[in-house]
Amino acid sequence: MSQQVSIEKELRKSYLEYSLSVIIGRAIPDARDGLKPVHRRIMFAQHELGNGYTRPPKKSARVVGDVIGKYHPHGDSAVYDALVRMAQDFSMRDPLVDGQGNFGSIDGDAAAAMRYTEVRMSRLAGEFLADIDKETVDFRPNYDNTLLEPSVLPTKVPNLLLNGSSGIAVGMATNIPPHNLGELCGALLHIVDEPGCTVEDLMDHVKGPDFPTAGFVYAGQGLYDAYTTGRGTVKVRGKVEIEERKKGLQAIVIREIPFALNKSSLVEKIAALVNERKIDGVADLRDESDRKGIRVVIDLKRGTIPDIVVNALYKYTPLESSFGINMLAVVGNRPQLLNLKQALEIFLEHRREVIIRRTRYDLRKAEARAHILEGLRIALDNIDEVVALIRASKTPQDAKDALMARFELSEAQAQAILDMRLQRLTNLEHEKLVEEYNELLKKIEFFRSVLENPEVLRSVIREEIGELRDTFATKRRTEVLEEELDGIDIEDLIPDEDVVITLSRRGYIKRTTLDNYQQQRRGGKGIAGVHTSEDDFVQDFLTTTNHQYLLLFTNHGRMHQIKVHRVPEGSRTAKGVHIANLVQLDKDELVTNVLTVREFAEDRYFLFVTRRGMVKRSSASLYAKCRKTGLIAVGLRPEDELIMVREVDEHCHIVLTTNDGMAIRFQCEDVRPMGRSATGVKGIALRGKDRVVACVILAEEDTTSMIMSVSANGFGKRTNADLYRVQSRGGVGVKNFKVTPKTGDVIGAMPVRDDDALVLLTSTNKILRMGLTDVRSVGRATRGVRLVRLDEGALVVGFDRIDEREVVDGEE
């Protein structure tokens, strides 16, 4: 007869049953023995095979066959993978299987096939199955009801925390780190002696996870949360050493790595970062690891600061990673999140139950044996009468009945007398029997005291834990650090010295120390600067310091941000590296302007100036947080481009200069603050094909500043800023430079003082540095003096000022 069933209810019921099956029967360990069913079955199958640590190992295929044939109805690969992990000393803090053969490596190499490898239980694994034959745990039918298997092992080892566990079930997961056996035993003894202790008390014994791959772990708030609530995240680090090599060279050696990290993947990651120039200063990378331990060697280039490379390794590679602790385990057939004390208490309760059940079994056996010995003693005391009685009996049953009637014996005692060998009649055997009986009486008394006196039971637990610690505990491998694992601040290692940043039109950038440029007199030819290709030239040339932010503005109106010291250092004539190695640029995106700032203050502004005379003022704080892909800095009209960005405050004056020699001065307050993506307002009215080439920022009350203007053919002049009257924004301005075919167009202008120096760069990549006292001060509508004697066809393409009050001059 058909029956209607709600599909929703049926799906709920089926999914719930499946979820419970995965949680209880596969992915989450039991809190008592710390084992998942597959591991428990592997160990029990080896126990049944007699595959202990004192026996020769057996083929792994034999063990796997017994497991899947008798207890575990799953694939052989799943069982063998679990068996292999139990034998790996880099996966298990204290392996439970002694493996012989290839069981894989920390590089992720797979183990040999099960037909080639051999296994046996480790000595520690024997403690998991001790007393299992004494009815200490419940047994249940296997999957086909032909055999019995233990529902839990009567382990003496707190394995849930010792070797940890990880697994993903349905809707939940567990990730328990391994710990040190000696520390766990100390915490267990503390709970036995002080049941009311707190988690904080136990943390005096359990310092933190103890990974088989060693390394460092930070005992901070994350570890405290994990031990008090069951969930928390800790930082783990590998261990590195710095070795001194010949000729003053140095090398970084990685000796320990974080738990569960594939060493081969780590080396590949480091190599990729070196190729991407995210880690600089590496000359060679090789893996020299062997059976004695891990040794990954990173040879450094001469002059590289090792701590900077180490910091980059921790920052960009899994050499420093986070371990999320989630102490979820099965308690009473239900998943439960445990703190440190709960996990240890559940193990102690399990040991208490095992000891009680074992003691009951031993007491029952001892009492039965004592009962037999009492009968044998009666028989020996009346041996002549017993012999006569037996000889007079027609059958063994008659003899048994006669003995029971004559001496008031039980059937078991009478049968033992009938089974007694004649050698037991000797005086020596009689003494042994009496001695055995007396020993049994002592044991019976002890067993009863264990069952009746809680203090005696605690002493038994205490003794077992002490023996376990004395026999199996090893030294801690992972070092626990009390202080937070902060990365080394690279800027503390790099001097904040003056440097020169050069950026070519095709995007090649480099950083050079200012000492490379010696001061010369006006009219000199200069020294060789950066070497570029014939179709490239330097477009940005500025002096700054290593600790400042380098802001890169592109033709798309976007901004990218890096620290100055991240720009690779090069020689005076080096080409540099392409900017795409430092920031993410679109296919047709070019960096057109560079600005350096030390901080993004709210009362400071960025002033944007475009080629067609548009200006925009935006708060610097809007540009503090920059994504890897950059951010929108300014909106641009068609056929316009961003030529300059300057840091200003709202009380300054702005002077825009053009290539035809015009200039306009207006107050910064005339340009209201706008958002990042705004286009701006008109700053100067341009005539014909005139274009803005520079923006000069002057203080409102400044009466001493001079404006230095430079032309393409190497002419320049200083003009007092007072000669530029303040006008309204948007006018045509006043004459700034007398442009002639001899001088060439104006290429730029900037504010200077008498004690400044000037650095000029020519299109033939020569650099000239001179003092500004060599350039006389003249009026606005003049062409100035020759600053540099150019080679035929050469032009001045860039210049910048240097504050001589802060820079130590080079030799002339």
From TrEMBL:
PROSITE patterns in alphabetical order: TOPO_IIA
Annotated Topo IIA-type catalytic domain residues: 28-493
UniProt similarity note: Belongs to the type II topoisomerase GyrA/ParC subunit family.
Localisation: Cytoplasm
HAMAP family per the UniProt record, alphabetical: GyrA
Protein's name according to its UniProt entry: DNA gyrase subunit A
UniProt-listed PANTHER family: DNA GYRASE SUBUNIT A, CHLOROPLASTIC_MITOCHONDRIAL, DNA GYRASE/TOPOISOMERASE SUBUNIT A
InterPro entries: GyrA, GyrA/parC_rep, Gyrase/topoIV_suA_C, Topo_IIA-like_dom_sf, Topo_IIA_A/C_ab, Topo_IIA_A_a_sf, Topo_IIA_dom_A, Type_II_DNA_Topoisomerases
A single MF term (Gene Ontology): DNA topoisomerase type II (double strand cut, ATP-hydrolyzing) activity
List of catalytic residues: Y116
Motif (GyrA-box): 520-526
EC id: 5.6.2.2
Keywords, ordered alphabetically: ATP-binding, Cytoplasm, DNA-binding, Isomerase, Nucleotide-binding, Topoisomerase
The UniProt record lists the keyword Hydrolase: no
Reaction equations catalysed: ATP-dependent breakage, passage and rejoining of double-stranded DNA
Statement: the UniProt record of this protein carries the keyword Zinc: no
Function: A type II topoisomerase that negatively supercoils closed circular double-stranded (ds) DNA in an ATP-dependent manner to modulate DNA topology and maintain chromosomes in an underwound state. Negative supercoiling favors strand separation, and DNA replication, transcription, recombination and repair, all of which involve strand separation. Also able to catalyze the interconversion of other topological isomers of dsDNA rings, including catenanes and knotted rings. Type II topoisomerases break and join 2 DNA strands simultaneously in an ATP-dependent manner.
Subunit structure, as described in the record: Heterotetramer, composed of two GyrA and two GyrB chains. In the heterotetramer, GyrA contains the active site tyrosine that forms a transient covalent intermediate with DNA, while GyrB binds cofactors and catalyzes ATP hydrolysis.
Organism: Nitratidesulfovibrio liaohensis
Additional facts recorded: Few gyrases are as efficient as E.coli at forming negative supercoils. Not all organisms have 2 type II topoisomerases; in organisms with a single type II topoisomerase this enzyme also has to decatenate newly replicated chromosomes.
A family per Pfam: DNA_topoisoIV
